[in-house]
Backbone:
C-alpha cells in the first residue's frame, strides 16, 4: 500500500494495546470491588484512571525499550539482512573439522584408544 513502516508500526502497536488495556481495566475494577470501593460511578472512575494510566505507561515503556533493543528505525527496513556465502576459508575450516572428527572416531573405535564415556558398555 506504500505506507511508511513507522506509521504501520504505530497503528499496529495501538491496536495491540487495546486488549491489554481492557484486561488491565477489568483487573483494576475487580480489585476495587474486592476492596469495597463505593459504587459511585464518578468515584470509581476517579480511582480507576491513575492505575490504568500508570500500567499503560509501564507497558509502553517496555515496548519502547524492546524496539530500541531491536534497533527499530536505526536503518532502512529493506536491507536489514545480510547474504552469507561460504568462502574458501570457511570451506577449508569445515573440511578440517570433518577430517578431525573422522580421525578421532577411527582412533577411538578402530584402534580402541581414548577414554570411554561414563556408563559406556563394551
Residues:
Amino acid at each position: 500500500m506504500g505506507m511508511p513502516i513507522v506509521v504501520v508500526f504505530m497503528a499496529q502497536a495501538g491496536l495491540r494495546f487495546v486488549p491489554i488495556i481492557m484486561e488491565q481495566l477489568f483487573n483494576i475494577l475487580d480489585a476495587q470491588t474486592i476492596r469495597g470501593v463505593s459504587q459511585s460511578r464518578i468515584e470509581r472512575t476517579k480511582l480507576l484512571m491513575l492505575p490504568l494510566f500508570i500500567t499503560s505507561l509501564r507497558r509502553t515503556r517496555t515496548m519502547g525499550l524492546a524496539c530500541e533493543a531491536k534497533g527499530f528505525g536505526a536503518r532502512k527496513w529493506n536491507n536489514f539482512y545480510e547474504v552469507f556465502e561460504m568462502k574458501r576459508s570457511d570451506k577449508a575450516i569445515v573440511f578440517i573439522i570433518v577430517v578431525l572428527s573422522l580421525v578421532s572416531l577411527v582412533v577411538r573405535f578402530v584402534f580402541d584408544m581414548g577414554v570411554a564415556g561414563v556408563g559406556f558398555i563394551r
User: Anything to note?
Assistant: The helical segments are 5-35, 41-69, 88-109.
